[in-house]
Write a structure and sequence with these properties.
Shape: flat
Helix content: 40-55%
Radius of gyration: 16 Å
Structural class: mainly alpha
Oligomer: single chain
Distance between the termini: 31 Å
Largest sheet: none
Strand content: under 5%
């Protein structure tokens, strides 16, 4: 979600980067402290993938196809015995 303003006097890009970094730091600490907690890197998947199919034409929203890939990856990692058709349905690809 693009930001136009923040509750701080910082530049929007700096404030957004700081908040994402803080959230990631806390998530990492929780992951290290509790053995039953995991971190799934969906944000990083979007932000660090350099292919043209990540974003819609508006360059604001993530494409449905890329969201589907993320969901499929999530299900493969956390529900490895799930049926491929179920994964496609959950990922938005329909039940083919």
């Amino acid at each position: 979600m693009p930001l136009n303003a923040t509750f701080t006097d910082q530049d929007v890009l700096l404030a957004n980067t700081y908040s994402k970094s803080m959230l990631r730091t806390v998530a990492g600490e929780i992951y290290r402290e509790f053995p039953h907690v995991d971190y799934f890197s969906s944000y990083e998947s979007v932000m660090l993938t350099h292919t043209s199919n990540v974003w819609n034409k508006d360059l604001i929203h993530v494409s449905d196809a890329f969201v589907g890939k993320i969901v499929d990856n999530l299900l493969k990692n956390y529900l490895p015995d799930s049926e491929p058709t179920m994964r496609r349905a959950w990922a938005g690809g329909g039940a083919a």
